[in-house]
From TrEMBL:
This is Beta-ketoacyl-[acyl-carrier-protein] synthase family protein. Pathway: Lipid metabolism; fatty acid biosynthesis. Belongs to the thiolase-like superfamily. Beta-ketoacyl-ACP synthases family. The lineage of its organism: Bacteria, Pseudomonadati, Pseudomonadota, Gammaproteobacteria, Lysobacterales. PROSITE patterns: KS3_1, KS3_2. It holds the Pfam family Ketoacyl-synt_C.
Amino acid sequence: MPPLAIRAYTATSSLGRGLDAHATALAASRGGLTPNDITSAPLACWIGRVDGLDTEPLPGEWSAWDCRNNRLALLALRQDGFIDAVRAARDRYGASRVAVLLGTSTASIAATEEGYRRLEHGRMPADLHRPPLHTPHSLAGFVAGFFELEGPCLTIATACSSSAKVFANAERMIRLGLVDAAIVGGTDTLCDSVLFGFNSLELVSPEPCRPFDADRQGISLGEAAGFALLERPRENDDAPLFIGYGEASDAHHMSTPHPEGLGAELALRDALERAGLAPDQVDYINLHGTASQKNDEVEAALISRSFPATTRASSTKGFTGHTLGAAGIVEATVALLAMRDGLVPANLGARKPDPGCGPHFAWESERQDVRYALSNSFGFGGNNACLAFARPGAVA
């Protein structure tokens, strides 16, 4: 696959706003999980909550799109010079030549929940009678409108792989000449449907999650937003590169991974082949690592049989929680920061490593030269994705 330049990227999560906040937290092995205070009824768990969403509504001209999800999206867009980078791309290529490809699993469902709680004679209350808001496409519609873009605008909703799969869509559109640049990423926020829904599946941990710990009790949920701007590289480019992706749908079970990791392995091998990488060239893998019993068991076995011990691996969901449809972009950002800063983040939360984990696991943070990194995102229904990145100058 011809590589694509990552012209700009950013993330906002419970670790803070923008790249510097995330880099600082990762270097200090400081997580962002706090006791749940967001559900309408008590639920004993820990969450990765982003501060400020309940007090920073969208400005007047965007008030029709106002909800926690779109507030978080705008908060993230305002970090790391991302807005300026997108506007420069729009000026360079034209409004119809920049795509908006975003992933989300719940979109603005919190606003819909609120509307149903406050029904007026069986109808949405007047302040929430905004049909475009109550759709899965709310996020992408808002972002495209914010930037005044007229190119392809697509929402991907494949659960936890949503904002990873958008990278693949961007590569295909740019390679086929449909667009010259693409905004990729995603946003998800917390609400009753998310927290009580996962709790009904008996997946939510009563304590901060412990990925790959022998005594792990389940996931911690988080909210986050992240974005990247992809375009073809320029001569003497110093941008990090998106060099490969793999996708697979094994459809083994609605909420449980294939016991041998069939779909995950197909996605992983596809990504390596597209990137032109051998397993021993991969320096770091950001694992999906949800801290659920089956996911961690299957993923640990996949890493052990696929990579040499020199490849470092960790899950960062102990830092942010599982950010659902935003997990792909947030963890891609972590992989990019690992290359930028030469830091393999700790597998935060694990106190007693699962015996199934091999020597690849970085239980504490490590200073390493990271030239090539992968990011795994495995969603419900066997929607699996793996992304491959290279440090500037690593690809001739």
